[in-house]
Amino acid sequence: MAKQPTHKCTECGAAHFKWSGQCDACQAWNSIIEEAPLTTGPGKKSLGAMRGKALELSDLNAKDDPPARTASGVAEMDRVLGGGLVEASAILVGGDPGIGKSTLLLQVAARFARNGMHVIYVSGEESAEQIRMRAARLKLSQSPVRLAAETNLRDILTTLDKERPKLVIIDSIQTMWSDQVDSAPGSVSQVRAASHELVSFAKRTGTAIILVGHVTKEGALAGPRVVEHMVDTVLYFEGERGHQFRVLRAVKNRFGPADEIGVFEMTGRGLAEVTNPSALFLSDRDKPAPGSVVFSGIEGSRPVLTEIQALVSPSPNPQARRTVVGLDSQRLATILAVLESRCGVPFAGLDVYLNVAGGMRVNEPAADLAVAAALLSAREDISLPAESVVFGEISLSGALRQVTQAENRLKEASKLGFTSAIGPEQKKLPRVDGMTLRTMPDLATFVQELFGTDPAP
């Protein structure tokens, strides 16, 4: 390894390998001093004596201009991004195979290109002809999007450095490979290296980049978790194959709110935006039936009404089944335990099936009371009023905890024709015209008043 300079001139800053009386650069006398090593440790592992460039520091009260955003024209996509695409940002989009990631991003790329943005779409999974066929089906053939089918990272970066686009879409990051890494494409090393190079290019040149990522059987993004830390935004494209609804959810966003959602409907001409998700999720709702409850939830900044369905039946097996779709199975187990322990409602020997209609996934704790209502309704074979919505969080003691944005939940329910709501007691009772809020102090009171089941002593 080459010897590093260990002395410098205090007058001009010139580096020297040894001390001398006069600086060769500025001719100053007695100005050369020996520098202490930057770090200590083994020579091949530490930084040694060589110093880098001093950073420019700023104060906390320094005011910078907010990042410039470019709207795509796809309102649901812009909502999830926090208002539009930020220059030099890196976005990771994940989802199940065939869920519609490539279709959505091709539509978004076409909108940006039509608005005058230089867009390059690089596919490592499909040929350029396959992408053109999809564009023709979506009526996007006239959009000025530039295409490439390549997996060699060096060739891709060379092309991007020459073209200097404003937006690049890489589909997918698992197919990219670097000739500096001795492993197969899709391996942890290749994914980490490719992501680092592409994100670094984006930050260096001001190009926004969207990376498509595969997901595992558990629904998490495949590859090293460090990729999620490299990028600015992580989006998940969710939905069930049997439903036409698709939900784009932000789980990380450095430029906007996290947990924001955008709702799309899969049609023959691609993904169509859904401006009123509540009406769409409740459009197929039948007449009131036991086990059916409407939950008024909050997804990001928007209220969304969804139908929670439950079925409770005697189990023919020694071990009762617990099947959940669209909710956390551990949360269901907790609610069943609270119902049995605090309210005296047993579910032993009963199979429980729980589902969120429309392919929606609910992660909010405020859905606890709606889940309990659906379970009790199915178990007691009693239907709740058709005009009612339910929300509230259940604690382990059986108490009902107040939820945030209760007024927005009631306004959304009123907009869709609901006239009453059941929820926990609130410090400040929200008032919405045409809506009546019936409050409950705890789960035992809720069970007794709605289903006539006395709580356990």
Can you put this structure into words, describing what you see?
By secondary structure, the protein is of the alpha/beta class. The chain has three domains: 1-32, no CATH class; 69-275, P-loop containing nucleotide triphosphate hydrolases (Rossmann fold, 3-Layer(aba) Sandwich); 280-451, Ribosomal Protein S5, domain 2 (2-Layer Sandwich), CATH 3.30.230.10. It has eleven helices and 23 strands. Strands 8-7-9-10-6-11-12-13-14 form a nine-stranded mixed sheet. The longest helix has 18 residues, at 188-205. The termini are far apart. The mean pLDDT is 89.
Largest sheet: 9 strands, mixed
pLDDT averaged residue by residue: 89
Q: So what's the overall shape?
A: elongated
Task: Return the CATH architecture of the largest domain.
Answer: 3-Layer(aba) Sandwich
List how many beta strands DSSP finds. Answer: 23
CATH topology of the largest domain: Rossmann fold
What is the rounded Rg?
29 Å
- State which percent range the strand residues make up: 15-25%
